[in-house]
Design brief:
Layout (H helix, E strand, L loop, with lengths): L40 H11 L11 E5 L5 H18 L4 E7 L6 H12 L2 H4 L10 H15 L2 E7 L8 H7 L11 E8 L7 H8 L4 E5 L4 H9 L14 H9 L6 H17 L7 H21 L3 H16 L5 E2 H14 L7 H8 L8 E5 L10 E5 L3 H8 L3 H4 L4
Parallel strand pairs: 1-4, 1-5, 2-3, 3-4
Antiparallel strand pairs: 6-8, 7-8
Bound molecules: adenosine-5'-diphosphate and magnesium ion.
Adenosine-5'-diphosphate binds next to helix 2 and helix 10.
């Protein structure tokens, strides 16, 4: 056989880990233990109050949580739900949690299917929830049966709830007991949204569709970010973090708004950069470089995740900016450029009004700066937009979309 098994390790890889002791602690999806969570005592208490009835098999209070990214909304919801599950078990009550990312499951059917698959234990229920092939109604029927068979209380966490296509699923989940869809169990909903400053129509409808408590998570200040990072410093080997590394990371992450996700990402990237450069200590330079990398990664993620229509609009502004760097452009002009691109892409063009809306959507705030002069009707005419990133960088990211790459721009 063609393996040279002479006891030597393959030199393609590295086998030492001089910087990290446990890098997993800095994974964003890692669920830290309660002793690593700082600065959210009050909020945890409020979530606990809403879920408390579940411990005794009673219906929890539905809850909506609002706050900017990285303020601990997902973390606190998951952490408190887990603690409720544990406490309920002592009482002989079976509480189960389903965590749904509505950014990925945007339709009613896929949300119901995903909850079903998360909660289902086929050995116990004898029910199968196939990945595809069932109508929405059948997925509901199976879900209700699963909930009745497998649990006394179900906590459904709907994260990024503003991404849902419509609010039907919320209405049905919240009325399942009332309408006798489930009879031996009960459902509590936690809805989470990042869109605190931009309550859109869906948000409003969703909020008014059933009774609930509301909770706002404010951004962290630099001190809280230091505490959060300090509590995960054992991700690194002893003595590897310079004294400046954590405070500088916290300060940089606090600049826009105190975002713990960004803080953790920067610190992790700083460690990776130090590893790559074979340095023994994580220094200020590593942290600055890591901030750049974190922001570039995020920017790429943001654009790559956008729908092709939004990318076409961004491409229109990018092409205009290439000809007149740092200039700003009225919606009309961007719209004309966009129409050409849309036709090259064989896409039905959106209305000018919709394009104006997309240019001003929250998601593009870090990429585009929009200024409106005058107000009232037809304000689109008076709005000008400026690309904040270098056109080269934006084009590079946009070209990762195969349809746009085919344009050869
Ligand atoms: N109070 C906190 N203590 C410790 N870690 C935190 C805290 N808040 C957030 N984090 C961490 O920061 C990251 C982002 O938090 P997350 O809950 O995903 O924010 P959000 O859902 O509000 O965007 C996660 O890795 C989380 O573990
Ligand atoms: Mg979240």
């Amino acid at each position: 056989m063609a393996t040279d098994d002479d006891g030597e390790r393959d030199p393609l890889f590295r086998y030492d880990e001089p910087i990290f002791a446990d890098e997993d602690l800095l994974r964003i999806s890692h669920l830290p233990g309660p002793n690593r969570i700082v600065g959210r005592d009050e909020h945890m208490q409020k979530v606990a109050e809403a879920l408390n009835p579940a411990i005794f098999g009673q219906e929890p209070t539905h809850l909506f949580i609002f706050g900017k990214t990285g303020t601990g909304k997902s973390l606190i919801s998951r952490s408190v739900s887990k603690r409720v599950e544990n406490e309920a078990e002592h009482e002989g009550v079976n509480v189960r949690t389903a965590f749904i990312d509505c950014g990925e499951q945007t339709t009613e059917a896929s949300v119901i299917k995903t909850i079903g698959r998360e909660l289902n234990d086929p050995n116990e229920t004898g029910i199968k929830v196939p990945q595809r092939g069932l109508g929405t109604g059948d997925y509901y029927d199976r879900l209700w049966q699963i909930i009745d068979t497998c649990s006394d209380v179900v906590i459904v966490i709907l994260d990024e709830i503003d991404m849902l296509e419509d609010d039907e699923v919320l209405r049905k989940l919240s009325r399942a007991g009332e309408n006798r869809r489930v009879t031996d169990s009960t459902i509590g909903i936690i809805g989470i949204s990042n869109k605190i400053d931009f309550p859109d129509e869906l948000n409003e409808r969703v909020k008014s569709s059933f009774a609930h408590d509301e909770l706002v998570f404010p951004p962290y200040d630099a001190h809280q970010l230091v505490d959060i990072l300090q509590n995960r410093a054992d991700a690194f080997r002893d003595g590897v973090l310079s004294d400046d590394a954590v405070p500088l990371t916290a300060a940089l992450a606090a600049q826009e708004h105190g975002d713990a996700r960004k803080a953790i990402d920067i610190l992790r990237n700083a460690g990776r950069i130090a590893t790559k450069q074979e340095d023994e200590v994580v220094t200020e330079e590593h942290v600055y470089a890591a901030k750049e990398k974190t922001e570039a990664d995020r920017f790429a993620e943001l654009i790559e995740g956008a729908p092709t229509q939004a990318k076409a609009i961004l491409l229109a502004l990018t092409l205009l900016t290439e000809n007149k760097p740092r200039d700003q452009f009225p919606t009309q002009q961007i719209y004309r450029q966009y129409q050409t691109i849309a036709s090259d892409l064989d896409m039905d063009p959106l209305s000018e009004r919709r394009v104006q809306e997309i240019l001003q959507e929250q998601d593009f705030l870090n990429v585009i700066n929009s200024e409106t002069k005058g107000r009232g009707r037809g304000r689109g005419v008076h709005t000008k937009h400026r690309l904040l990133e270098e056109p080269e960088i934006v084009k590079k990211v946009l070209n990762r979309d195969s349809r746009i790459a085919d344009l050869g721009i």
